[in-house]
Amino acid sequence: MFSPVPRRPSEQTCAAWLWRRLSDDGRHAYCPRCGADRPFRLRRGDIRYACRVCEMALDPRAGTAFEGSRTPLGTWFVATAMLREDPQLTPTALAAEAGVSYATSWRMLRRLRELPAGAFELRAGLGDEPGREPSTRVSLPSDDLIADPKLTSILRGAATAIVARGFAETRISDIADEAGVSAATVLHHFRTREAVLLAALRWAGAVATMQLSEELDPDASARDWLRKSVGSILPADEEQRAEAVLQLECWNVALHEPELVVHTEDIARRWRATLAELVQHGIDRGEFSTAAPAADVADLIAAALNGLWPKVLLGFEDYPRERCIELAETLLDTLLPAGAARAAPPVAR
Description:
Keywords: DNA-binding, Repressor, Transcription, Transcription regulation. It is a single chain. The protein is globular and about 65 Å long. The longest helix has 24 residues, at 261-284. Helix content is 53%, strand content 6%. The chain has helices spanning 11-19, 73-85, 91-98, 102-113, 151-165, 172-179, 183-189, 193-215, 222-233, 238-256, 261-284, 294-314, 321-335, and strands at 28-31, 36-42, 49-51, 57-58, 139-140, 143-144.
Protein backbone atom coordinates (compact mmCIF):
# COMPACT_ATOMS: atom_id res chain seq x y z
CA MET A 1 0.00 0.00 0.00
CA PHE A 2 1.27 3.46 -0.84
CA SER A 3 0.79 6.10 1.79
CA PRO A 4 0.59 8.80 0.84
CA VAL A 5 -0.13 8.34 -2.87
CA PRO A 6 2.45 10.33 -4.89
CA ARG A 7 1.21 13.83 -5.64
CA ARG A 8 -0.25 14.09 -9.14
CA PRO A 9 1.57 16.89 -11.02
CA SER A 10 -0.22 19.06 -13.58
CA GLU A 11 -0.09 18.23 -17.28
CA GLN A 12 1.90 21.39 -17.99
CA THR A 13 4.45 20.53 -15.30
CA CYS A 14 4.93 17.04 -16.72
CA ALA A 15 5.14 18.35 -20.28
CA ALA A 16 7.74 20.95 -19.30
CA TRP A 17 9.81 18.27 -17.60
CA LEU A 18 9.60 15.99 -20.66
CA TRP A 19 10.44 18.90 -22.94
CA ARG A 20 13.92 19.01 -21.41
CA ARG A 21 14.52 15.70 -23.17
CA LEU A 22 14.24 17.52 -26.48
CA SER A 23 15.66 20.88 -25.44
CA ASP A 24 18.90 21.33 -23.52
CA ASP A 25 18.01 24.84 -22.39
CA GLY A 26 14.21 24.52 -22.36
CA ARG A 27 13.87 27.10 -25.15
CA HIS A 28 15.56 25.70 -28.27
CA ALA A 29 15.21 22.35 -30.04
CA TYR A 30 15.77 20.77 -33.43
CA CYS A 31 12.89 21.54 -35.81
CA PRO A 32 12.44 18.78 -38.45
CA ARG A 33 10.63 21.15 -40.80
CA CYS A 34 13.28 23.87 -40.63
CA GLY A 35 16.12 21.36 -40.46
CA ALA A 36 17.88 23.39 -37.78
CA ASP A 37 17.78 24.33 -34.10
CA ARG A 38 15.01 26.87 -33.51
CA PRO A 39 13.42 28.68 -30.56
CA PHE A 40 10.18 27.06 -29.37
CA ARG A 41 7.24 28.23 -27.25
CA LEU A 42 4.56 26.35 -25.32
CA ARG A 43 1.27 26.50 -27.21
CA ARG A 44 -1.60 28.11 -25.36
CA GLY A 45 -3.89 25.53 -23.75
CA ASP A 46 -1.72 22.66 -25.03
CA ILE A 47 1.25 20.58 -23.93
CA ARG A 48 2.96 20.79 -27.31
CA TYR A 49 5.69 23.25 -28.21
CA ALA A 50 5.62 25.27 -31.45
CA CYS A 51 8.59 26.43 -33.51
CA ARG A 52 8.67 30.23 -33.49
CA VAL A 53 9.82 30.23 -37.13
CA CYS A 54 7.55 27.73 -38.92
CA GLU A 55 4.99 26.94 -36.16
CA MET A 56 5.59 23.19 -36.41
CA ALA A 57 4.41 21.58 -33.15
CA LEU A 58 6.51 19.03 -31.26
CA ASP A 59 4.96 16.75 -28.68
CA PRO A 60 7.28 16.26 -25.66
CA ARG A 61 5.85 12.75 -25.28
CA ALA A 62 7.40 11.70 -28.61
CA GLY A 63 9.76 8.76 -28.22
CA THR A 64 8.71 8.10 -24.62
CA ALA A 65 6.55 5.47 -22.95
CA PHE A 66 3.70 8.00 -22.94
CA GLU A 67 3.50 8.59 -26.70
CA GLY A 68 0.06 7.88 -28.14
CA SER A 69 -1.55 7.37 -24.75
CA ARG A 70 -4.84 9.01 -23.79
CA THR A 71 -4.01 8.62 -20.10
CA PRO A 72 -3.05 11.96 -18.49
CA LEU A 73 0.66 12.53 -17.99
CA GLY A 74 0.08 13.16 -14.30
CA THR A 75 -1.32 9.65 -13.93
CA TRP A 76 1.69 8.23 -15.75
CA PHE A 77 4.05 10.03 -13.40
CA VAL A 78 2.17 8.67 -10.38
CA ALA A 79 2.46 5.18 -11.87
CA THR A 80 6.21 5.51 -12.43
CA ALA A 81 6.72 6.70 -8.86
CA MET A 82 4.68 3.77 -7.50
CA LEU A 83 6.56 1.30 -9.68
CA ARG A 84 9.87 2.69 -8.44
CA GLU A 85 8.72 2.14 -4.85
CA ASP A 86 7.42 -1.37 -5.54
CA PRO A 87 8.81 -3.20 -8.61
CA GLN A 88 6.19 -5.94 -8.02
CA LEU A 89 3.32 -3.44 -8.31
CA THR A 90 0.15 -5.16 -9.57
CA PRO A 91 -2.47 -3.69 -11.92
CA THR A 92 -5.08 -4.02 -9.17
CA ALA A 93 -3.03 -1.94 -6.72
CA LEU A 94 -2.22 0.71 -9.33
CA ALA A 95 -5.89 0.93 -10.38
CA ALA A 96 -6.99 1.52 -6.81
CA GLU A 97 -4.33 4.11 -5.98
CA ALA A 98 -4.20 6.00 -9.29
CA GLY A 99 -7.96 6.04 -9.88
CA VAL A 100 -7.97 4.24 -13.23
CA SER A 101 -9.58 1.05 -14.52
CA TYR A 102 -7.88 -2.33 -14.33
CA ALA A 103 -7.52 -2.30 -18.13
CA THR A 104 -5.72 1.03 -18.04
CA SER A 105 -3.43 0.04 -15.16
CA TRP A 106 -2.54 -3.25 -16.86
CA ARG A 107 -1.67 -1.41 -20.06
CA MET A 108 0.41 1.18 -18.22
CA LEU A 109 2.44 -1.35 -16.26
CA ARG A 110 2.99 -3.51 -19.32
CA ARG A 111 4.30 -0.53 -21.27
CA LEU A 112 6.54 0.72 -18.45
CA ARG A 113 7.96 -2.73 -17.80
CA GLU A 114 8.83 -3.08 -21.46
CA LEU A 115 11.33 -0.24 -20.97
CA PRO A 116 14.06 -1.67 -18.71
CA ALA A 117 17.05 0.49 -17.84
CA GLY A 118 19.79 0.08 -20.41
CA ALA A 119 17.42 -1.18 -23.08
CA PHE A 120 15.82 0.30 -26.15
CA GLU A 121 13.41 3.16 -25.57
CA LEU A 122 13.58 6.35 -23.60
CA ARG A 123 12.27 5.61 -20.15
CA ALA A 124 11.02 9.19 -19.81
CA GLY A 125 12.48 9.53 -16.34
CA LEU A 126 11.04 6.41 -14.74
CA GLY A 127 11.83 6.91 -11.09
CA ASP A 128 12.36 10.65 -11.40
CA GLU A 129 9.90 13.37 -10.55
CA PRO A 130 9.10 16.74 -12.14
CA GLY A 131 11.37 19.36 -10.66
CA ARG A 132 14.35 17.04 -10.39
CA GLU A 133 17.17 16.95 -12.89
CA PRO A 134 16.23 14.31 -15.49
CA SER A 135 18.08 11.00 -15.50
CA THR A 136 20.90 10.45 -17.96
CA ARG A 137 20.01 9.11 -21.35
CA VAL A 138 19.24 5.42 -21.49
CA SER A 139 21.74 3.46 -23.56
CA LEU A 140 21.16 1.09 -26.42
CA PRO A 141 23.82 -1.48 -27.19
CA SER A 142 26.70 0.68 -28.46
CA ASP A 143 24.57 3.81 -28.65
CA ASP A 144 22.50 6.40 -26.83
CA LEU A 145 18.82 6.71 -27.61
CA ILE A 146 17.19 10.10 -27.24
CA ALA A 147 13.62 11.19 -27.75
CA ASP A 148 13.04 12.40 -31.29
CA PRO A 149 9.91 12.96 -33.38
CA LYS A 150 11.36 10.73 -36.12
CA LEU A 151 11.86 7.74 -33.82
CA THR A 152 8.46 6.15 -34.35
CA SER A 153 8.72 6.40 -38.14
CA ILE A 154 12.19 4.85 -38.02
CA LEU A 155 10.99 1.87 -35.99
CA ARG A 156 7.92 1.43 -38.16
CA GLY A 157 10.13 1.58 -41.24
CA ALA A 158 12.55 -0.92 -39.70
CA ALA A 159 9.73 -3.35 -38.98
CA THR A 160 8.41 -3.03 -42.54
CA ALA A 161 11.82 -3.51 -44.13
CA ILE A 162 12.88 -6.46 -41.96
CA VAL A 163 9.58 -8.30 -42.36
CA ALA A 164 9.69 -7.85 -46.14
CA ARG A 165 13.38 -8.66 -46.73
CA GLY A 166 14.57 -10.59 -43.71
CA PHE A 167 17.12 -9.15 -41.31
CA ALA A 168 20.14 -10.54 -43.18
CA GLU A 169 19.13 -8.71 -46.37
CA THR A 170 18.05 -5.45 -44.72
CA ARG A 171 20.47 -2.53 -44.87
CA ILE A 172 20.36 0.72 -42.94
CA SER A 173 19.53 2.46 -46.23
CA ASP A 174 16.48 0.19 -46.66
CA ILE A 175 15.22 1.22 -43.24
CA ALA A 176 15.85 4.88 -44.04
CA ASP A 177 13.90 4.59 -47.30
CA GLU A 178 10.91 3.00 -45.54
CA ALA A 179 10.98 5.67 -42.82
CA GLY A 180 11.42 8.58 -45.22
CA VAL A 181 14.60 9.77 -43.51
CA SER A 182 18.29 9.69 -44.29
CA ALA A 183 20.58 6.82 -43.34
CA ALA A 184 22.46 9.31 -41.17
CA THR A 185 19.30 9.93 -39.16
CA VAL A 186 18.88 6.20 -38.53
CA LEU A 187 22.51 5.93 -37.46
CA HIS A 188 22.01 8.94 -35.18
CA HIS A 189 19.75 6.73 -33.05
CA PHE A 190 21.13 3.25 -33.73
CA ARG A 191 24.73 2.49 -34.59
CA THR A 192 24.05 -1.14 -35.45
CA ARG A 193 21.38 -3.04 -37.36
CA GLU A 194 20.99 -5.31 -34.33
CA ALA A 195 20.02 -2.32 -32.19
CA VAL A 196 17.38 -1.33 -34.75
CA LEU A 197 15.98 -4.88 -34.81
CA LEU A 198 15.65 -5.06 -31.03
CA ALA A 199 14.08 -1.62 -30.82
CA ALA A 200 11.64 -2.46 -33.63
CA LEU A 201 10.54 -5.59 -31.76
CA ARG A 202 9.96 -3.55 -28.60
CA TRP A 203 8.01 -0.98 -30.59
CA ALA A 204 5.85 -3.62 -32.26
CA GLY A 205 5.12 -5.18 -28.88
CA ALA A 206 4.13 -1.81 -27.41
CA VAL A 207 1.76 -1.13 -30.32
CA ALA A 208 0.18 -4.57 -29.91
CA THR A 209 -0.26 -4.02 -26.18
CA MET A 210 -1.96 -0.68 -26.72
CA GLN A 211 -4.33 -2.14 -29.31
CA LEU A 212 -5.15 -5.12 -27.11
CA SER A 213 -5.98 -2.92 -24.13
CA GLU A 214 -8.24 -0.74 -26.28
CA GLU A 215 -10.15 -3.78 -27.57
CA LEU A 216 -10.72 -5.34 -24.15
CA ASP A 217 -13.68 -4.47 -21.97
CA PRO A 218 -12.28 -3.12 -18.67
CA ASP A 219 -15.00 -5.11 -16.86
CA ALA A 220 -14.23 -8.38 -18.67
CA SER A 221 -13.34 -11.46 -16.65
CA ALA A 222 -9.73 -12.44 -16.08
CA ARG A 223 -10.35 -15.53 -18.24
CA ASP A 224 -11.50 -13.33 -21.13
CA TRP A 225 -8.38 -11.20 -20.68
CA LEU A 226 -6.19 -14.30 -20.80
CA ARG A 227 -7.95 -15.71 -23.86
CA LYS A 228 -7.62 -12.42 -25.71
CA SER A 229 -3.96 -12.10 -24.73
CA VAL A 230 -3.21 -15.67 -25.77
CA GLY A 231 -5.04 -15.16 -29.06
CA SER A 232 -2.97 -12.08 -29.82
CA ILE A 233 0.21 -14.20 -29.70
CA LEU A 234 -1.03 -16.51 -32.46
CA PRO A 235 -0.62 -14.22 -35.50
CA ALA A 236 -3.85 -13.46 -37.34
CA ASP A 237 -3.31 -10.07 -39.01
CA GLU A 238 -0.37 -8.30 -40.62
CA GLU A 239 0.65 -6.43 -37.46
CA GLN A 240 0.69 -9.61 -35.36
CA ARG A 241 2.57 -11.40 -38.11
CA ALA A 242 5.14 -8.60 -38.24
CA GLU A 243 5.79 -8.85 -34.51
CA ALA A 244 6.18 -12.62 -34.80
CA VAL A 245 8.63 -12.30 -37.70
CA LEU A 246 10.69 -9.78 -35.73
CA GLN A 247 10.74 -12.19 -32.78
CA LEU A 248 12.09 -15.02 -34.94
CA GLU A 249 14.66 -12.70 -36.50
CA CYS A 250 15.83 -11.66 -33.02
CA TRP A 251 16.22 -15.27 -31.95
CA ASN A 252 18.21 -16.04 -35.09
CA VAL A 253 20.54 -13.08 -34.55
CA ALA A 254 21.00 -14.03 -30.88
CA LEU A 255 22.29 -17.45 -31.98
CA HIS A 256 25.31 -15.73 -33.51
CA GLU A 257 25.50 -12.68 -31.22
CA PRO A 258 25.53 -14.05 -27.64
CA GLU A 259 25.36 -10.57 -26.11
CA LEU A 260 21.87 -10.22 -27.58
CA VAL A 261 20.58 -13.22 -25.63
CA VAL A 262 20.07 -11.13 -22.50
CA HIS A 263 17.77 -8.77 -24.41
CA THR A 264 15.66 -11.48 -26.05
CA GLU A 265 15.41 -13.27 -22.71
CA ASP A 266 14.25 -10.06 -21.06
CA ILE A 267 11.43 -9.72 -23.61
CA ALA A 268 10.32 -13.29 -22.87
CA ARG A 269 10.56 -12.75 -19.12
CA ARG A 270 8.34 -9.69 -19.25
CA TRP A 271 5.72 -11.53 -21.30
CA ARG A 272 5.62 -14.29 -18.68
CA ALA A 273 5.27 -11.66 -15.97
CA THR A 274 2.27 -10.20 -17.79
CA LEU A 275 0.63 -13.62 -17.97
CA ALA A 276 1.35 -14.17 -14.27
CA GLU A 277 -0.33 -10.86 -13.41
CA LEU A 278 -3.47 -11.87 -15.30
CA VAL A 279 -3.53 -15.30 -13.63
CA GLN A 280 -3.06 -13.76 -10.18
CA HIS A 281 -5.83 -11.26 -10.90
CA GLY A 282 -8.20 -14.14 -11.66
CA ILE A 283 -7.15 -15.98 -8.51
CA ASP A 284 -7.68 -12.88 -6.39
CA ARG A 285 -11.16 -12.42 -7.84
CA GLY A 286 -12.06 -16.05 -7.23
CA GLU A 287 -12.41 -16.82 -10.94
CA PHE A 288 -9.68 -19.48 -10.93
CA SER A 289 -9.31 -22.41 -8.57
CA THR A 290 -5.70 -23.53 -8.53
CA ALA A 291 -3.10 -24.30 -5.89
CA ALA A 292 -0.23 -23.67 -8.29
CA PRO A 293 1.60 -20.34 -8.05
CA ALA A 294 0.58 -17.86 -10.74
CA ALA A 295 4.17 -17.67 -12.02
CA ASP A 296 4.30 -21.45 -12.58
CA VAL A 297 1.00 -21.39 -14.47
CA ALA A 298 2.28 -18.51 -16.59
CA ASP A 299 5.46 -20.46 -17.41
CA LEU A 300 3.39 -23.40 -18.69
CA ILE A 301 1.16 -21.15 -20.80
CA ALA A 302 4.17 -19.32 -22.26
CA ALA A 303 5.95 -22.60 -23.04
CA ALA A 304 2.90 -23.93 -24.89
CA LEU A 305 2.46 -20.72 -26.86
CA ASN A 306 6.14 -20.69 -27.83
CA GLY A 307 5.54 -24.07 -29.43
CA LEU A 308 2.42 -22.93 -31.27
CA TRP A 309 2.90 -19.43 -32.65
CA PRO A 310 5.90 -20.25 -34.91
CA LYS A 311 3.82 -23.03 -36.50
CA VAL A 312 0.96 -20.60 -37.11
CA LEU A 313 3.37 -18.04 -38.57
CA LEU A 314 4.95 -20.58 -40.92
CA GLY A 315 1.58 -21.99 -41.96
CA PHE A 316 1.98 -25.61 -40.83
CA GLU A 317 -0.97 -27.57 -42.22
CA ASP A 318 -1.29 -29.64 -39.04
CA TYR A 319 -1.47 -26.50 -36.91
CA PRO A 320 -3.93 -24.00 -38.40
CA ARG A 321 -4.58 -21.01 -36.18
CA GLU A 322 -8.09 -22.19 -35.27
CA ARG A 323 -6.75 -25.48 -33.91
CA CYS A 324 -3.98 -23.71 -32.01
CA ILE A 325 -6.55 -21.41 -30.41
CA GLU A 326 -8.53 -24.47 -29.31
CA LEU A 327 -5.40 -26.11 -27.90
CA ALA A 328 -4.46 -22.96 -26.01
CA GLU A 329 -7.95 -22.51 -24.55
CA THR A 330 -8.06 -26.18 -23.52
CA LEU A 331 -4.77 -25.64 -21.70
CA LEU A 332 -6.17 -22.56 -19.94
CA ASP A 333 -9.26 -24.48 -18.80
CA THR A 334 -7.09 -27.37 -17.56
CA LEU A 335 -4.59 -25.23 -15.68
CA LEU A 336 -7.17 -22.75 -14.38
CA PRO A 337 -10.46 -24.47 -13.51
CA ALA A 338 -13.32 -22.16 -12.63
CA GLY A 339 -13.55 -21.05 -9.01
CA ALA A 340 -16.34 -19.52 -6.96
CA ALA A 341 -16.09 -16.22 -8.78
CA ARG A 342 -16.83 -13.14 -6.78
CA ALA A 343 -17.48 -9.65 -8.03
CA ALA A 344 -14.43 -7.48 -8.38
CA PRO A 345 -14.31 -4.38 -6.17
CA PRO A 346 -15.42 -1.25 -8.00
CA VAL A 347 -12.58 0.61 -9.64
CA ALA A 348 -12.72 4.32 -10.40
CA ARG A 349 -12.29 5.27 -14.03
